[in-house]
Every structure is written in structure tokens, then in C-alpha cells.
Amino acid sequence: SDKNPVKAAAAKAVDALRGDGPEDGVPGKPGAEPPTLAEPTEAREPLPPKPDQGAPATGTATGRPTGAPPTARAQSGAYLTTSTGTRLYDTDHSLKAGPRGPVLLQDHHLREKITHFDHERIPERVVHARGAGAHGVFVGYGTASNVSRAALFGKDVETPVFVRFSTVLGSRGSMDTARDTRGFATKFYTSEGVWDLVANNIPVFFIQDGIKFPDVIHAGKPHPDREIPQAQSAHDTFWDFVTLHTEATHHTLWNMSDRGIPRSYRMMEGFGVHTFRLVNAEGATTLVKFHWKPKLGVHSQTWEEAQITGGVDPDFHRRDLYDAIESGAYPQWELGIQVFPDTPEQTFEGIDLLDPTKIVPEELAPVQPIGLLTLNANPTNFFAETEQVAFHVGHLVPGIDVTDDPLLAARLFSYVDTQLSRLGGPNFNQIPINRTHAPVNDMLRDGFHQHAVHTGTAPYKPNSLDGGCPFFAGADTAAFVETPVEVPAARKVREAPASYDDHFSQPRLFWQSMTPIEREHIVHAYTFELGKCYEQAIKERALQTLANIDPVLCERVAEGLGLPAPAPSVPLADVTPSPALSQVGGVWPPDGRMIGIVADDTTDLDDVRTVRRTILDAGMVPLVIAPSGGKLDAGGDPVTVQRTFATARSVEFDAVLVAGVPGPGSDALGARDAKTDDAAPVAATDPRVLLLLSEAFRHGKALGGWAGAETVLEAAGIPTGAPGVVTGDSGATVLEQVSALLGKHRVWDRFTPQV
Ligand code: HDE
């Protein structure tokens, strides 16, 4: 046992406690010497608390420095202690009556350790359980100050934020790339209190009234008998609900479009969904819809990519967000508003602003930028921050108010209620990540997990004992005053307005706004999802809803299902397409894009070095893929390998390059082993590389190769001269063209859509 250093240290500590010899006995025994315990190291100060605490310093996937100062990766402090600070000398052995004897109940450390472990889990969110978060800052442009008095919109006002992105249906451990809606919830720690903008990446919702939320979620979640399928909408209960309940058609169509499978959280829009009411300093009101616009554009995976990613990297979006922030490619979004006059009808161009299944096309009401969000720090601890953050649509600040959207009403109730069971009591706003940065002077007292030590004896109002403190603020001293809107005289009813009956005109508007390739993806998505349903009646009802969107959509899906296409059961609306809804078109910055570089022992490494450097300088991420790990070329200036043929899969890369092979007699070869002189690239025969390249080609990704790399591309079945396949003499020229292709996200010309 004295060969085991941990045991040896423990034995030494026990000896020290016992004194010099067996006769001296244990401390407390009459005549025993006081124990002498050697100080193994100096105790260190604990880490500083947030917000000063930097993100944990790690290398990026590329080995690029993060810029963050090194931070301790383990517990700080020299000694392990109990939760009450008593130092421990052993945590590997229970206290026993002799080495082979029974464990003693008096072992407090054992009981504390196991008890705490037993209670480590809290309930996951009933929806949006799977998520990833990041810290950042929001800077106002000052452009919204005429419509809202909220301090955070002021010019150059900086507000710290925490953002949590999520999927809706899956459990905490489910894959990131499921076809689903994404949450995009932002907590603004403003000087006037917390404002939560709890948004989604889809601007409409399945239901028009919150009372139906449990229904739509029960239908979407796994079946209650076998609890399958996980994180999927491709099953009978989901399609049963959305086809019986046709107000869900619009949201479902967005889910079946490329919006349902984002490439990255960094490349998603966000929408407040409901119409909100802004109030300015004079008390004038405006109706608005909030939009987040990503600086990198809105991009998606292809369906096959999403499925492969779900297997090879279920944490794809979480990892992407973390890595981008660590490598300094800070994601950014502009917050924008569509502005509508606050009229008694609450409609705009005939669109009911209180109906959360409707959008207002940007061509009718442009999105006006009001501030910039930058995410620049990863959480220090997932549980403490991302898991315990508690958003609430009712966390509002003066200048931002709600409307009578009946979906919003249920949310205003639900978000506190759910935290009571999720976070175990009413004091969740005292958890560090939820704490406001504004002074708190409430009269809420006691309850589970109360952290505040409230002073005073009069937590009630009115009081005279505290001289009446605290006092009320007024509208002029930043009180939140509900807007005194007129409520029309009415009967109590369980009814919706007639305008809520239009379930198909806006889905048709969306379909008509898509480019052919986007339409083809939608056809494939419906065909796949409905193909996974067993009930014939559900498929037939789904085809009816599709016929009411567009006959071509219906016919193509019907063909895939092997069923007849029904005729529309409603008149097809005459709509004007909204090009802003399409994701295809436009050129976007390639920041943070991942470029794989296939290389092996035959590769000219000088070119690889130049290409890597150019990629890094352009703010993208180069990953060298080689037959095995470690370094390529032991001599001189070796190139580090980030992925091996075994660990690289196409879904990780936005573009793949095949590095050149120097010809016989090349200078680059001179420095290396002559045996590589006439060797064919290993990559040309390795099936994993050929799969990597053929998948990347199939998914419309830019491909490049230079100086002999054509052999490898050809071996992968990639036709020379195909769109987006760039070959040339040097890495630099090839990379230039590949970067230009990346600005469009995919090589769209490679597809020939049939819709
Ligand atoms: Fe939510 N929603 N929701 N929701 N929602 C929750 O709150 C709810 C809706 C959204 O990252 C829950 O803390 C009802 C629309 C996001 O922590 C819960 C209704 C939109 C998140 C809840 C809706 C959202 C949630 C679960 C219909 C987009 C994740 C855990 C009336 C505008 C927040 C929690 C995070 C989370 C209720 C509809 C967005 C149960 C009753 C519409 C982004 O309170």
C-alpha cells in the first residue's frame, strides 16, 4: 500500500494526527502530545466571483490562444474540506472498524458526500430542457429612444446579458441537431431591473391561446407508454395534433423548412413572437415586434448532415458556440423592431397583431436596428449558470410593456410557476445568474433557500416604524407603470376573434417566398416526417393541410408517401412573397467557419502552413486532418494535426481542402524522407477520407485542392469542374476562391431542385 502515493499521504497524515508512537495514543487521550500537522502547501485565495471571473482558459480546437488569462481548472485552495470547512485527510476510504470491518455510521464525511450527490439533479425544464448559454453585452444605438424610455436602448448604453439557446422537445441529454424550434432567451441586467426577452428562432407559434400549450407539448414529446421517440416531431402524436389543429400549420411549415435545423446558434434569427407595447418618456405608446438579426446570416444544415451530426456529435451547437467564443469569434446579433401604430384595432395592413400565428412581412414594416448584442464569455459552470438561469416574460423594465395576446397571458403566469418546482422555491431570483444589477428593495421574505439576511422589523407597507421606507417611485423616477390602455366593454367568453380563423394564407406566403431549393427541402422534410407516422388518417389529414398551402407541395409529398393528393378545401390566398423569409442569397462574413485540410506524409507542408495562417487571419478555423494524431513532419517546423481520419466527419466542416502533393524533385520534399518522393497520397485510398469528401460534396460544401490533390477528389467520385470544386497550383489561390464560396454558405448551384 505504501506504493500508492494517495494512501501513503493519508497514512502520513494519520500518523501526524496520532503523534509519534502507538503509546502516545490519539489526541484527547490524557498525556497525549498535541498533533503536529505539516503544511503541505500555502492555501490559495478562492477564485474571484463573477463578473470579474474570466472564462476558463482552454485552447481552441485549433490550438489557437484564447486571449483569456489562465484560470485554475480544479478547485482552488490547498485543502479539501467538508461543506462546513473542516479539513479532510482522506476522501477515498469510508471509516471502518478495521480494514475489512463494517463501515461506521459515524462517518460524517461519507454521509455528507453521498447525501449531497444523491440530490445533485434538479428537474429539467418541461420544455427547452436542452440548452447552451453565454455571457455578453448589449449596446443601445439610441434609435429606439423616441419610442421607448427604457434606459438600455439609450445611445451607447452598455448592458450585461446572459443568453440561453435551446431546443424545445428533447431532454437535457438529447442531440442538438434535432429538427425543432430553437429558444433564444436573453436576460438583460439593466440599470432599471432585469428585462427578459424570451424568444424563439421561429416568429410564429403553434397555438393562439396559451391554454393549449400542454396539448401541443404532450403531442410533441415522446409517447407516454414507451417514451419514444426522443427529440423528434416525426411521430404520430405530433402530426395528429397539428393536423387536427390547423392554426399550427404556419409554425409547422417553418419547422419543416431549413429553419428547423440551424447550422449554428450563431446563425439563427430570434423573434419575440408576440407584439409588445413600448412606452416613451412622454407616455406615448407604439406596438412592436422584436427581431434578432445574426451578423453571420441565417444558415442551416442539410437534413442528412443534421442526422449524421446527431450521432457523431450530439453537442454540435453547444460546442460550436463555446469554441467560437473561446477563439474570439464573438457572435453578434442586431436587435431590431418592427414598429406599428398603437391603434384600438391592433392590426397592421389587415394582419392581427395579437395573433401569434401571424408575421408582418419585413417588406411591409422594415426591421429597424436598435442595438447590438455580442456574446463574449462562456459560462464558468454549466449548472450554476445555464441550468439555473430563470427567464420570465414578465421581467419587464419601464418603457417595455405587454399586449393582450392570449398566448402571452399564459406565459406571464407559467414562467414563475415552473421555477418553483424546477429551482425548489420562491427565491430563485437570488441565485447569482438571476440576480438583478439594480438595487433590490422588496418586501418578499423567507422561503426555501433564502440567501438575504434582511434587516429591519417592518417588511410591510404602509409602515411608520421604518419612517415609511421604502418609498414609491413615480413614472418620473423610473417606476414601471402599466400602460393605462382601454379595455373594451365585453362579455366573458371562451372564444377567439374571427381573424384567428385564417390558418393558411401565411403558410402560403412562406411557401411562395422560398427559393426552389428551400421548397425541395420542405418537401423532403414533410415526406420524411409523415413517412415515420403509422396512422393512415393522420397522413391523409396532413396532405389536406398541405393542399391548402400549395397544390405542388401537396402533390410532391403525396407522391413520396404513395397517397393521392387531395384538392384544397379552402380558397388559396393571393399572396405577395416576402424575399426576407428566404435564407438563400446574400453574402455573409465567414467568421468562425471550419475548414478541414486533408494532409498526410506526402503533403507539401509549406503550403499547409500558409493556408492555415491565412484561414486564421480571416477569422476562420483551420483543422488539419491526417492519418494519425500528433504532428506531420518531424523535421523543422512541424504541423499539428487536429483531426485524424478516424475522428474527422464531414459535418464538422464548412469546406474541405485537400493539400497538395509535391512533385518529384520538389524543394519541399528535399527536407523529408526520400521514400515519400513517388508515394501516392494516403488520402486517395483511405475510405474515411473518400467518405468525408463525398459527403461534403453531397451537402453542397465548397471543396478545394491543389498540386496533385485532384487524384484524391477524383477517387472520391467528385467530378472535376463541378460547381464549387476549386483546384489550382497553390493553396493560396484555391483558398481565396473557397472563402468566397463560404460567404454564400453553400454551393447552391450544385443542386437541381424539382419544385
Ligand atoms: Fe415558453 N416556456 N411557453 N415559449 N419558452 C418555458 O419556462 C410556456 C412560448 C421559451 O432558456 C418554460 O423556465 C407557455 C413561446 C423559451 O430557460 C415554461 C407557453 C415562446 C424557453 C414555458 C410558451 C417561448 C421557454 C419551461 C404558451 C417564444 C426557454 C422552463 C403560452 C416567444 C427559456 C422555463 C430558457 C421555456 C411556458 C410558449 C420561448 C414552462 C405556457 C411563444 C426560449 O414556463
UniProtKB/TrEMBL annotation:
Q: List the SMART domains hit by this protein, alphabetically.
A: Catalase
Which Gene Ontology terms of cellular component type are present?
Answer: cytosol
Which CDD domains does the annotation name? Answer: GATase1_catalase
Which regions are flagged for Low complexity bias?
Answer: 54-74
Q: Per its record, what are the GO molecular function terms? A: catalase activity; heme binding; metal ion binding
Q: Which UniProt keywords apply?
A: Heme, Hydrogen peroxide, Iron, Metal-binding, Oxidoreductase, Peroxidase
Q: Which cofactor does it need?
A: heme
Query: What domain of life does the native source organism fall in?
Result: Bacteria
Query: Its Enzyme Commission number?
Result: 1.11.1.6
| Positions contributing to heme binding | R125, R164, F213, R411, Y415, R422
The residues joined by the cross-link 3'-histidyl-3-tyrosine (His-Tyr) are H392-Y415
Instruction: Provide the active-site residues from the annotation.
Output: H128, N200
Coiled coil (UniProt feature) = none
Using the UniProt annotation, give all residue ranges assigned to the region (Disordered): 1-79
Q: What chemistry does it catalyse, as a reaction equation?
A: 2 H2O2 = O2 + 2 H2O
GO BP terms = hydrogen peroxide catabolic process; response to oxidative stress
Q: Where is the Catalase core domain?
A: 81-469
- Its family? Belongs to the catalase family. HPII subfamily.
Q: Its biological function?
A: Decomposes hydrogen peroxide into water and oxygen; serves to protect cells from the toxic effects of hydrogen peroxide.
Q: What is this protein called?
A: Catalase
